[in-house]
Write a structure and sequence with these properties.
Length: about 350
């Protein structure tokens, strides 16, 4: 009868547990599980049967370290899946494409999991971890950093990860915010609103860049609306702003989905995006291009971001074979459309 993992001192059965159960040495168990000819066939079968009954799983990270091989990367997505923010959007799908391409070229496999399973055996057994999404207040980073494995994160470096020795890769969020502000200023907009939850480091940088570009101008920030990364969140936040009677003529949203939801609320209130209000989103997603009116948006190259994430982690795992990238920050640019 298999005992639960919690019944073992280390939380899961080990080679020593199997050796004790069979009455052989630990090295004999190791050889048997590697199908070594040094172990008699009947003993080998007994060891394998015992290991299976106990629910033994090899510690692949320890094996990689022992053999000086690094063969597996765990990618953790810190994102709540919903119909309003699907997993097949460019974030995270294009990022994943870049990660897989870079890892496959280096001969590594990729294991994918969501934040709910971030401390799964697959994650613990990986040679390194890539986290897509820091989460509010870096909660996901803290959880994964506690595993003690090399970790690279997509997001913004505000110093928290640096103190933990975690590598952060992301786009130039401050520049993105500055580009959005300059676009609105060039169109004569004076009363501007920012939409997004700045407890996320990326959005905090976007907001900071937006404010920096307004310094010394006659434009001002008249509203800062926290909301989640969905169109429904953007719609609800904009409805509340309009209900409060705040006059505004420019909106910078921390994501395209937020912007699209906000524009829906504007139209319902009789405001026309592009004519009455200049709207800028972030991500330059397919939704921004297909929306009517077309959404002006800050572009970031997700695929290149995924490749840079993987390259950064590989350089941590084996710096002699994989040199560190020159920069961990990707350039951003503004894609101008009708909004």
């Amino acid at each position: 009868m298999r005992k639960p993992d919690s019944a073992y001192p280390g939380g899961r059965p080990t080679l020593s547990d199997i050796a004790a159960a069979v009455g052989v040495s630990k090295i004999t168990v190791s050889r048997a599980l590697r199908d070594s000819d040094l172990v008699k066939p009947e003993v080998k079968q007994q060891i394998r049967d015992t290991a299976a009954a106990m629910g033994y799983r090899p510690n692949l990270a320890a094996r990689d370290l022992r053999l000086r091989q690094r063969k597996r990367i765990s990618v953790v997505i810190d994102m709540e899946a919903s119909a309003d923010r699907p997993m097949y959007d460019p974030y995270p799908l294009a990022l994943l494409g870049g990660i897989v391409q870079e890892c496959a070229t280096a001969g590594l496999s990729v294991v994918l999991t969501t934040s709910d399973g971030s401390i799964s055996p697959e994650t613990q057994d990986a040679s390194g971890i890539i986290l897509l999404g820091q989460g509010a207040h870096h909660h996901a980073v803290h959880e994964l950093a506690a595993l003690g494995l090399p970790l690279a994160v997509w997001g913004a470096d505000d110093g928290v990860e640096r103190k933990m020795g975690v590598a952060v890769v992301g786009s130039d969020n401050r520049l993105g915010g500055q580009l959005a502000a300059r676009h609105m200023l060039a169109r004569g907009r004076k009363k501007l609103v920012f939409l997004g939850d700045t407890s996320h480091a990326e959005l905090s940088d976007r907001m900071a860049g937006f404010g920096e570009a307004l310094t010394g101008t006659d434009a001002s920030l008249v509203g800062e609306l926290p909301c989640d990364f969905t169109s429904e969140g953007g719609r609800a936040a904009m409805q509340a702003l309009i209900a409060d009677g705040v006059a505004f003529d420019g909106l910078f949203a921390g994501s395209d989905l937020m912007a699209i939801g906000a524009m829906r609320a504007m139209r319902d209130a009789g405001l026309l995006p592009g004519r009455d209000v200049t709207v800028v989103g972030y991500d330059d997603s397919p939704a921004a291009a297909s929306h009517s009116p077309g959404l002006t948006s800050v572009h970031q190259n997700w695929t290149a971001g995924g490749q840079l994430l993987a390259a950064t982690l590989l350089s941590t795992l084996d710096p002699t074979r994989y040199p560190a990238p020159i920069s961990r920050i990707l350039a951003t640019e503004l894609t101008i459309r009708d909004s």
